[in-house]
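Give me structure tokens for this 101-residue protein.
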Amino acid sequence: MTLEHPADRGGSRRGPFERLAEHASNFTSSPAFFGICMLLVGTVIGVHIAKAPLTWMLLAGESMTAVTLLLLVKVTSRPGWDFWSRAMACERRVLAAASGR
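Here you go.
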């Protein structure tokens, strides 16, 4: 088991996970995805207001979980990881400079 970010494993060659993560990230940034999310939220609210059968409530809730997982892919995509790597490097430099006084 490795503790590296999936995009950092495998050298410079991009694997299927990296390609899938990039496609998912691009999709979650699109207006179409925003529209799907708004429809889904409206559906969840409607299902609960209408007091639909439990099966429909579970389907709506599980759909929201799937959307959450897609958004997590976006957060852990390569550009986001680069940002956090740079932020942590900057923090280490500031702490090293502060402790050197």
